[in-house]
Specification:
Layout (H helix, E strand, L loop, with lengths): L7 E2 L7 E4 L26 E3 L8 E4 L2 E6 L14 E2 L26 E6 L5 E2 L3 E6 L5 H15 L8 E5 L15 H11 L9 E4 L7 H4 L6 E2 L13 E4 L7 H21 L4 E4 L4 E6 L10 H14 L3 E4 L9 H4 L6 H20 L10 H5 L5 H8 L8 E5 L9 E5 L5 H8 L5 E6 L12 E5 L2 H6 L6 E2 L2 H4 L4 H16 L6 H5 L15
Parallel strand pairs: 9-10, 9-11, 11-13, 12-13, 15-16, 15-19, 16-18, 17-18, 19-20, 20-21
Antiparallel strand pairs: 1-2, 2-3, 4-5, 5-6, 7-8, 7-14
The protein binds calcium ion.
Length: 521
């Protein structure tokens, strides 16, 4: 595409705005082939008004009303954030429930990846030593031990991909019996038994904290690792308590962690990758640093790949309540049954109330970067965001801190905050897909993070951070199907260890950040 040819993308025939594709934007006076002339200079990925309108007229994108003009504007005007009034969110009490459940799509067979089989039938996409913690107090000690393990032990165990400290800010100084406390506690429990850890982490506890190991891992047989004893390894986690009377000084504490780690590394090192059907994947989808291209390039391509994964029998999760709230009327009809639809509405209502208690609302969602990228408000952001969810039936809704158990498309309630959403999705996912327009070097230690850019200029500038460039869809160089298939195959390659994401190449791993809606004391 010549940069001189003016180019715009209109998503839906009903839309009265389109976004400008040309890098650097287009100057006022630019004429399109169909006669539209720009009244204003419009940056790339920002909206142009296609037909003149009056104050109060709807602004339509994705075939949906994203707001109303607050003044008269001519065709060719730049439709900026401050010219659009935010409409009310869809009412939650009269939504269609499972009225248009999509029929099951043709199964897609024959796609596999090489994974690490676990005793419970799940498959890991990595083979990691996990050291989990019950409280932030022990985090620096565990981090110190991890550095020693990496330097002194790991080189002897070539089949182990790494060691991960599951550290966090939770565990004490909290109202542990408040209803909201269940969210971080369940989250940490699920993450501690992540498929990529092979089932049995070492649990490091302080001893006096509110979050007891048996509360974090209910129903799990915990073995107490005494100061002097060497563990007999089994599938059950070990608990090492730093305040153990038998441990003298920091040296003995670290030595005890290293001793347990070494035994576990011997076990993990014997594991081999073996073929697994694509149905053993649980893929979490998320966007961060979105722009106005996200909803026409990367998110629809991810949606296409999501449909392929669902057809292959995998679980695909989308999340981010505040980015689903304004598109909920498009999702409740797609629910597999009325109960699933009602569960989705329950999660929307819970979050409305949560935001209300903090005297915030959904208008708090878009960031300055989103707005710089041409997203005027949360409605426009949400309509682009749910494109990630593809077209299949919504099979399950999981509450904050829960674990996805159904195959197919699942909504997991999480905040939209990148690192909190990623942490919550780690309760279930063994691979993460992250779309971005503005760019984020985000990554996770526990699961590979595949990053997809909304525009080619980002993929070129961050050539060693972005894994897949979906910007080619806007320029016409590739179709949504092309990039969807490319992503699907890339996911299988990464899950099977044949390719590495850029985030893993550089070791870019964000800290875990469980959602805590409960009170802190
Ligand atoms: Ca996000």
């Amino acid at each position: 595409m010549s940069h001189l040819t003016p180019r715009r993308v209109q998503v839906h025939a009903r839309d009265n705005v389109a976004i400008i594709v040309n890098p650097g934007g287009l100057p006022a006076g630019t004429a399109f082939d169909d006669g539209l002339v720009l009244r204003d200079t419009i940056p790339q990925s920002h909206k142009v008004l296609l037909r003149g309108g009056s104050a109060g007229d709807p602004v339509v994108r994705y075939g949906e009303v994203i707001g109303h003009l607050n003044r008269d504007l001519d065709a060719g005007a730049w439709v900026r954030e401050d010219l659009i009034d935010l409409p009310g969110a869809p009412a939650l009490d009269d939504l269609p429930l499972a009225t248009a459940t999509p029929a099951a799509a043709d199964p897609l067979t024959g796609f596999t990846f090489e994974g690490y089989r676990n005793a419970d039938g799940s498959f890991g996409t990595k083979n990691l030593l996990g050291i989990t913690t019950t409280v932030q107090c022990v985090a620096p000690t565990v981090d110190y031990a991890v550095r020693r393990i990496q330097a002194e032990l790991l080189p002897r165990f070539p089949n182990v991909d790494g060691v991960v400290a599951i550290t966090h800010s939770y565990g004490c100084g909290v109202a542990i019996d408040a209803p909201g406390a269940a969210v971080p506690i369940q989250t940490l429990g699920h993450i501690s038994r992540h498929a990529n850890l092979g089932g049995a982490p070492l649990v490091v506890s302080l001893g006096c904290e509110k979050l007891r190991p048996e509360r974090m891992l209910p129903g799990v047989a915990l073995q107490r690792a005494g100061a002097a004893s060497l563990p007999v390894l089994s599938s059950d986690p070990y608990v090492l308590t730093l305040q153990d009377q038998g441990l003298r000084g920091f040296g003995e504490i670290v030595a005890a962690i290293l001793r347990h780690a070494e035994r576990r590394l011997e076990e993990l090192n014997r594991r081999q990758r073996q073929p697994a059907p694509a149905s053993r994947l649980t893929v979490g989808l998320q966007c961060g640093g979105s722009d106005a291209f996200s909803g026409v390039t990367c998110n629809p391509a991810v949606g296409y790949a999501a449909d392929l994964l669902v057809r292959a029998g995998a679980t695909v999760m989308f999340s981010e309540v505040t980015e689903v709230r304004d598109a909920v009327h498009l999702l409740t009809p797609r629910a597999a049954n009325r109960d699933v639809a009602l569960s989705l509405i329950r999660e929307m209502r819970w979050y409305d109330e949560y935001l209300g208690r903090g005297q915030a609302d959904r208008s708090a969602n878009p960031t300055p970067g989103n707005k710089r990228g041409g997203l005027s408000n949360v409605v426009e952001k949400a309509l682009g965001s749910v494109a990630k969810a593809g077209t299949t039936a919504l099979n399950q809704v999981v509450s904050h801190g829960g674990r996805a158990t159904a195959a197919g498309l699942v909504f997991m309630a999480t905040p939209a905050s990148d690192f909190i959403c990623g942490t919550q999705q780690l309760t279930s996912m063994n691979l993460h897909v992250f779309t971005t327009g503005e760019g984020s070097p985000y990554g996770l230690a526990l699961a590979p993070v595949v990053k997809v850019s909304s525009r080619t200029s980002l993929a070129e500038r961050w050539h060693d951070l972005i894994d897949i460039d979906a910007g080619r869809i806007a320029t016409g160089e590739a179709s949504i199907e092309d990039v969807g298939w490319e992503l699907f195959r890339f996911i299988l390659d990464v899950a099977g260890g044949r390719r590495k994401t850029w985030a893993d190449h550089w070791g870019l791993h964000n800290a875990l950040s469980p959602f805590n809606p409960g009170p802190v004391t």
